[in-house]
């Protein structure tokens, strides 16, 4: 876990030290480690953030299934008030039939 954190920090530091071309595609620059792991491991991969696992999903159909969550298989984390204000009362923050 520590090695993964150090690798991510090193990748971010190297990315920030190199100039960026003028583009709207900033994801590889901001989240260098996630971009690299996505290329290495595919559209769905597991990463650890301390004792918690993080599942990264970059497949549009699977993301849609997770967000719709008809049978309640995917629990949504309780979002903070500022997140609700930012995202609104949409698919990402809503629970239940609404």
TrEMBL record:
Q: Which SUPFAM superfamilies match?
A: Cytochrome P450 (SSF48264)
Q: Where is the signal peptide?
A: none
Q: At the top level of its lineage, which domain of life is listed?
A: Eukaryota
UniProt-listed InterPro entries: Cyt_P450, Cyt_P450_sf
A single Gene Ontology molecular function, please?
A: heme binding
State the name under which the record lists this protein: Cytochrome P450
